[in-house]
Structures are given as structure tokens and as C-alpha cells.
Amino acid sequence: MLKYIQKAAIWTGLTAGFVLSAGQAWAAGNTAAGAQLFQSQCAMCHATTPGMAGIGPSLAGVYGEPAASTAGYDFSPALKSAHLVWNVATLNKFLKSPQSTVPGTKMPYSGLPSVGQRADLIAYLVSLKGK
Q1: Nearest Cα to Cα of residue 122 among 79, 48, 63
Q2: Is pLDDT at 41 greater than 70 in this prediction?
């Protein structure tokens, strides 16, 4: 039992440290790896060219913007009413599980379970801010 409590305490401490340093951790995401991940996981539905909507909206410049605010795309009522801003925390949560984060979203993607891959993808999305 003591080993379990010690492991739980260590895990809690690591988790708290990760949360406290989340900005630093996400800044360490690999943009090039995120670009490759985007091509394999996201590009079939999302473009990175402003105004180019496909099955999903363009993700050019999405970081820091309110969700469902990209012109030229018909967003779900669920995402419109979610009142999210695409920052590290909301992108991390949404990319992990879009359907549980915003029930009723049109995004059929089941989610990206890997923390490292989400960090890379978020780093790539941040790099698109100037587009």
C-alpha cells in the first residue's frame, strides 16, 4: 500500500509540475514533426491556406482565435456555443478527444492520445499564426 501511495504522490507531483510548466512544455513541441503529423492526420480535412475550407475549416492563424470564428465555414452549433479560444490548453484538450471536449462537434476525429504528438501538432499550429 505504501508503494502505491508513493507512486501516486510522485505521479501527482509530476502532473502538477507539467501543468505548472505547460507553456514551457508545449513550447518544446517539434514544429517539423507537427507538420508531418498534420499532413498524415489533419490535411485530408483541413487546409493551412487562409480561407480554404474543405471538409473542415482552414487552420491558418487559428491559434489564439475564438473557436468557430474562421470565415467561410459552417461550424456546428456545439462548437459555436462552446466559447473556446484556441490556446495550448484548449487545443490539447480538444485534440485529445474532440467529441468529449465539445459534444456535438462536426469533427469526427477520434483524438490524438499521445501527449508528445499533441505538443508537436500544437507547435505547428502556433507556427501558422502569421498566415
Answers
A1: 63
A2: yes
